[in-house]
Amino acid sequence: MDYLKAVQIIKEIPNNSEIMKVIYQITRLHIPDVVYKYYSLTSNDDLNEIKMKTLTDKKIYLADASTLNDPFEGKAFFYNHKRLAHYESLRPVDGKIIDDFTSFIRLTSLTGVGTNCMPMWAHYANNHSGFCVEYDTKNKENLTFRSSLFPVQYLDKRIDITEIMESLMTELEIAKSRALKHNMKKVELSNMTILWASIYYSCLKHESWSYEKEMRIVTSSVHRFINAQPSAIYVGVNCTRDYLHSLGSIAQKLQIPIYQMHFDEYSLDYKLNSKKLD
Fold first, then answer.
1. What pTM did the predictor assign?
2. Phi and psi torsions of 259, nearest 5°
3. In this predicted model, what pLDDT tens digit does every residue of 119-163 receive, in sequence order?
4. Would you list the domain boundaries of the chain?
């Protein structure tokens, strides 16, 4: 998915709902039928129990972008505030409109790589001690889940959105003048470019992360959880017996299969396998 081209088209035709609908439908073509979310189980028992309850409730927690593991999250794009300082309303703030675009959204990360990925187990399931949940995006119960899912695009360069911000400010100044002329108390702006840019550009990451084949659920900052019907649970090779039992009980309650990962010491295949648990 090329979000740069998508936002460029929206910028050129900012208020065309049909164009926005077509672009969104194109993003749907990049959604796999099955996605996976890895979870760690650490020494923080309280947090572990919250994860278990969230899974039992068939939900996924949506985090603030600032809490994600990449300190450069949201740094894939920027604008030069100095070029906006000439706008009268922005002079007192030196041209700064928004400090952090990610403050408008909440998100969570999933992957399309499956369960045979040693780096994912090592990095996101605390060295194979955690678990991984499979989600069928075709399941009718996951309609909202799927509609909020976006593929991540990997780049080697950052994106300068100063022109988008300049265009937005110019339109805003015109709208303000119109409002003053007609004694209007509200300034209405129908330009949707910045909204879609903040959503799509939040799915940009440096190419060094490409091995993750990340998929993201992106929603407004109002929502802290999203409904998600699991289709299977996979348990790491180092998961403790107690948590293995807890996850087994959850799988039974949700009526979904549970598997444990293992490594065949006498196989030529350098990979993880899964074995269904009774």
1. 0.86
2. -130, 155
3. 999 999 999 999 999 999 999 999 999 999 999 999 999 988 888
4. 3-276
